[in-house]
Amino acid sequence: MTEQSSSNGVLVRACIPHFFREDNEASGYGSRRPGARLARSLALARCITGLVNLQRGLQDAVLHIGDRTIDRPAQRRDTATLTPLRVEICVCTDGRHQLDDVLDHFRGQVKRLTIDLEDPRLLPLASRDHLVNSGTAPDLALYLEDDLVIHDASYADKLLWFLNRTQHKLSLMPHRYERIDHGNLGILHVDGPLSKQFIQRFTSPQENAANGLYLGKERVNFDITANPHSGTFALSKEQVHHLRTQRLPTSGFVGPLETAATLTVLQFFPVLKPSFNDRSFLSIEHGHPSFSHYVNKFPHRTTCEDPY
Fold first, then answer.
1. Has residue 305 been placed in a domain?
2. How many domains does the chain have?
3. What is the pLDDT along the chain (308 residues), one digit of tens a residue?
4. CA–CA separation, 286 vs 190, rounded Å?
């Protein structure tokens, strides 16, 4: 799968900042929205499950009820192109405001880290610092907000393929979306282009800035995106080592949440996303929708060009 995989397979280390406290007044963030406990619990559980499901070995087993045995067939045919992949998951909290029942359900599959902070809004930055600076660098370091859901079993493979092929000089973000099922609309891509005045402070968007042939058969085009935010970022081992020598940003891109998820890489690497026509190559679900109400507020228009 990747040139840097060891004999023990690929290690993905994921770090999730998690905070939940229902406020009496409405908040723009789902982690504080009143009446959101169930929705937030489902989103967190789906987030963790998506990461757990990235793991793979080279052999499957079959429960043979008739013979009361566990059968272990021969190795899968695709073992020549796949390597084992294991995921270490760390959920960072302030120790007071978290969904304990959800985290308890995944006991044994996630590590819980308590970070003592006077201001819980800084939890994303502290979680980012833990991911980048702690322990031996993994093959892939993955930061993601606690309501993002990975559905693609090849998600880590695609990120590592891109980072290796670009010699660890670029960053790749997924397209983040919400299901809306509104009329004939199925999903809403929530990170559309930012204003030129804002985004040009950080980068110069460019369509079709790069392309590649994934697994030798799938041609994918990439844009230097006009909206680098996705609520997540990924770093190769080489990029982790590089960031350990840098002063990581603590502000500068909207708020602490967005700075952690976006400016962490945007300050050091050009950020690309798959071109809109290739958006299915790398995407991630926003599991606790916050943007779908705009479908009924903003006017609709038909466009033929790549919106990014």
1. no
2. 1
3. 344 445 579 999 999 999 999 876 555 555 566 778 999 999 999 999 999 999 998 888 999 999 999 998 876 665 556 789 999 999 999 999 999 999 999 999 999 999 999 999 999 999 999 999 999 999 999 999 999 999 999 999 999 999 999 999 999 999 999 999 878 889 999 999 999 999 999 999 999 999 999 999 999 999 999 999 999 999 999 999 999 999 999 999 999 999 999 999 999 999 999 999 999 999 999 999 999 889 989 999 888 677 77
4. 9
- Burial group, residue 276, by CB count within 10 angstroms (0-12, 13-18, 19+): middle
Q: Tokens at residue 218, please? A: 């799938």
Task: Provide the residue type at 240 as one letter.
Answer: V
* Distance of alpha carbon 33 from alpha carbon 37, whole angstroms: 8
Which of 45, 21, 41 is CA-nearest to residue 33? Answer: 21
| Domain CATH for 212 | 3.90.550.10
Range of 97's domain? 10-57+74-296
CB 189 within 8 A of CB 173: no
Q: Hey, how many other C-beta atoms are within 10 angstroms of the C-beta on 202?
A: 16
The whole-angstrom separation of Cα 163 and Cα 298 is 37
Give the whole-angstrom CA distance, residue 27 versus residue 227: 23
Give, in degrees to the nearest 5, the angle at Cα 291 between 229 and 280. 55
